[in-house]
Hints:
Oligomer: single chain
Function: Required for the transposition of the insertion element.
Protein name: Mutator family transposase
Structural class: mainly alpha
Family: Belongs to the transposase mutator family.
Strand content: under 5%
Mean pLDDT: 77
InterPro entries: Transposase_mutator (IPR001207)
Number of helices: 4
Order of helices and strands: HHHH
Keywords: DNA recombination, DNA-binding, Transposition
Low-confidence stretches: none
Amino acid sequence: MNARIRRAVRARGRFPNAAAALKCVYLAVMSLDPTGQGRRRWMMRWKPALTAFEFASEGRLAAARE
């Protein structure tokens, strides 16, 4: 999973804001299951990652969502 996220971020390069970076990571995680069969499983995995990003960015993601 980390390799896919790293590849997606590296391919994009720069992001205009935190919301764009978050969207890129979200799409990379969702692309790991293109059939949608494991969608619930991936959604459960996305929440801890989002919480970790929120903690590491000290509230910047909450401001980007508004």
